[in-house]
Design a protein that fits this description.
The protein is of the alpha/beta class and 463 residues long. The chain is built from twelve helices and 19 strands. It has helices spanning 31-39, 53-62, 66-69, 80-83, 94-100, 155-169, 196-199, 230-260, 298-301, 323-334, 350-353, 410-426, and strands at residues 6-12, 41-47, 104-109, 125-128, 140-144, 147-151, 176-181, 267-273, 278-279, 285-286, 302-303, 305-309, 315-322, 364-368, 371-375, 379-384, 391-394, 449-451, 454-456. The strands form four sheets. Strands 1, 2, 3, 4, 5, 6, 7, 8, 11, 12 and 13 form an eleven-stranded mixed β-sheet that branches. Strands 14-15-16-17 form a four-stranded antiparallel β-sheet, covered by helices on one side. Strands 9-10 form a two-stranded antiparallel ribbon.
Amino acid sequence: MTTRPNILLFLTDDHGTWATGCYGNSEVYSPTFDTLAENGTRFDHAYTPSPVCSPARACLLTGRTPSQVGIHDWLEERDTNIANRDWLGNTLTLFAMLSDAGYQTGLSGKWHLGQSHLTPTGVDDYFGLPYWQGAHNDPYTYVRNGELVELEGNKSAHITRHAQQFIENVDDDTPFFLCVGYIATHSPYDQQTHRPQLTSRYQDTTFADIPPYYAHDWVKNEGAPNHPSDVELRDRYIGYYAAVTELDENIDHIMQTLVEQGHLDNTIIIYTSDHGCAIGHHGFFGKGNSTRPLNMYETSLHVPLIWFGAGIQQGVIPHNVDHYDTFMTICDFAGVIPDNHADYAGESYRRLLEGKPQQWDNTCYGEYGDLRMMRDDRWKLVIRYPNGPNELFDLESDPDETTNIFADYPDHVETMIEQLDTYYEQYDVPEKSGLRVKDLPRHNTAHEAWRDGKREARGLQIY
């Protein structure tokens, strides 16, 4: 058996932290999540640097900012021009880095960083979703190591089965890195798109953990009512909770395979989501692209983060961490920390996971095109370049971000903007910068440009 740990990364889609039992939800059924958190390490304040799928995934899998990589919005791979583009170029991913270090590498499920119909660089075994991912239980044409395969039934089940096959066939003397990318809990949310075995569990649920719905002033969900009825709201709630339980069950199946194959004791398991998700929270459904202007609310940024397994201590970590830090921590455990560490925004929190003291800076940064954010233990600053609207929230007194106090603290705002600018002076490649988003390649039909200081939507769609 190898002395280096196997690493199993679950990177799911649109899973809000609030929707698991171990993070305080009283009604969602999530025994696997809860067991992993109870016996491993749970981060209470983990964040995505970008509140939408593709750039968030790039942050975690490359350790680089969107303004270093040049991916600033979700990639609409139904458009073949977008699907066929090499968006990452020469940017190294965890797969390439760990493969070069001797790891067996696998990806089962969502990639969403361009060219999803091709095996990503550094991946030895690939089962993916080319082009648009579709709904949860529709027939779908997958790609398996370059071959298109049409399958019927539940997508999570297919992704799980391929992940299990990867684990069953690895060389026991060589460590493996496996990323499992479920599309649950992504929309569609309505219960008709989920399995009745799961939705039946929630027919009598009160959904007391979801705040009362109201329509946010900035909400703009085309194709969906801005004022859903109580029946429509409940339908979405049931579907979303069912998706969480679907994730929980499938992760348990993979855990059982680790046990059966004798790999559990030498495997580190990581669970996180690309970004958060609102199911009526703040008056919208989705994430950072569910409002106009785009948003950086906590519900869009806050992600679950659980570590379990070899060398991981039991406990709860209160520090603010993000996907950049998770990237560096995975590299640390695998022994592949980049030589050009200064070009990477994250820091390894391995010592925290091992129960050792470690100094930590709780400042986090984020971006979504020409929207940039920084936050610390108390303050969150949101700057929408070039002309706003801008926001400042006091997260201690106003954790739900209901009152914008940007105009009340000009001196503090100026200091935070200077800090934000200093950060992006280091982690911004000018020709790929989010501040030039209107000049960069189009990501999707919802992509927008700044004109006269106002957003002009082009065929807005929310996914």
